[in-house]
């Protein structure tokens, strides 16, 4: 029988978490949950409603009136906001720029964590984010903290954009990644930190398949069937 373990994958922006998590989930027959997409969806709706990313109370009220759904699609996870698909909209530049300011509020995080904990109840999941091993699933069977230098992460994001036909400025990408890292790791509530019991994986010199193989091997050690 397959053991439905829970894998928490944390790390800074553009460390390749979602690409790896998707493939790890596929290999193990698990469900992949991208928690960044949930913060992005709230940010997208807040911008549309002209709510300031700094306004905690209004963001919280908005979130309590918002349905965010993550559904598996043929090419990865699909994201729905109040029933409408917003998978690509939540990757837009203005969302990326503002999401860390939305995600720093206590009221917002408590509700997001509550929703995320509902999603992991049955196990058999790979969840990626910033606080999964520390706040969402502190008792996860496997915790991995993926890192890479900002230079390497910006390079990967640049290549990813190029493949999608999006022109971007490398230095600007790098600056934005560093800015997001700074806000995420210095916020008062559940900052981005490695859980004490997480396995640290510096992926600077690793390929995606190296990362996938390493994490699935760690999952197998903890009882998952490959
Ligand atoms: O993973 P992604 O880069 O899409 O996440 C976007 C932003 O959402 C992060 O920079 C962070 O501010 C926030 N986030 C968070 N906690 C999570 C996932 C994402 O604060 N678990």
What characteristics describe this protein?
17% strand; 226 residues; alpha/beta; single chain; Rossmann fold
What can you tell me about this protein's structure?
The protein is α/β, with parallel strands linked by helices and 226 residues long. The protein has a single domain (6-214), classed as Rossmann fold (3-Layer(aba) Sandwich). The chain has 9 helices and 8 strands. The strands form 2 sheets. Strands 2-6-1-7-8 form a 5-stranded parallel sheet. A 3-stranded antiparallel sheet has the order 3-4-5. A hairpin with a 2-residue loop joins strand 3 and strand 4. Helix 1 (17-28) packs across helix 9, helix 3 packs parallel to helix 5 and helix 7 crosses helix 8. The radius of gyration is 17 Å and the shape is globular. The relative contact order is 0.22. The mean pLDDT is 95. It binds cytidine-5'-monophosphate. The site of cytidine-5'-monophosphate has 14 residues, from helix 2, helix 4 and helix 8. Cytidine-5'-monophosphate binds next to helix 2, helix 4 and helix 8.
